[in-house]
Design a protein that fits this description.
globular, 64% helix, mainly alpha, 143 residues
């Protein structure tokens, strides 16, 4: 995290931290595929992350802490972004699933239920559920 990061707004800092988590997931297999890169660029644009910061995060995403959203729906939306990254290249590895579970704990899902939540998130993304359906299903699994 550079010196310029101290002047960021709270929202921008959260976006960068979330984006870094997504990059960690993309790099779980040590390769960023074309599909993953497309999704990362789309998310960087959505999160208003400039090219310089984008490249900095790609080089060392572990420098950024995992942001834990206070809002449950925001937490589910973060999980949705993460799960989408897992399948951005059309496949998911065991390493990516492990990283998804670790990050899921970091964003606030209970440790005793995180495997169930992560597995459901993966299933929902495989079935191409939108965020609304994804949110309903995760709430059912994470009671």
């Amino acid at each position: 995290m550079g010196l310029s990061d101290f002047n960021l707004s709270g929202e921008q800092k959260r976006n960068i931290e979330h984006f870094a988590s997504i990059v960690r997931l993309a790099l779980a297999d040590d390769v960023i595929t074309e599909g993953e890169e497309k999704l990362l660029k789309r998310l960087a644009k959505r999160f208003h992350i400039l090219d310089e910061k984008y490249n900095e995060i790609l080089k060392n995403p572990n420098e950024y802490p995992i942001h834990t959203p206070n809002n449950y729906d925001e937490r589910i939306a973060y999980l949705y972004d993460l799960a989408k990254m897992m399948y951005a290249d059309g496949k998911a590895s065991n390493e990516e699933a492990k990283v998804l579970r670790r990050i899921s704990v970091g964003i606030g899902f209970p440790i005793n239920n995180v495997e169930k939540v992560a597995d459901e998130a993966i299933r929902l993304i495989l079935n191409e559920n939108d965020l609304e359906d994804f949110t309903k299903a995760i709430k059912q699994v994470n009671k």
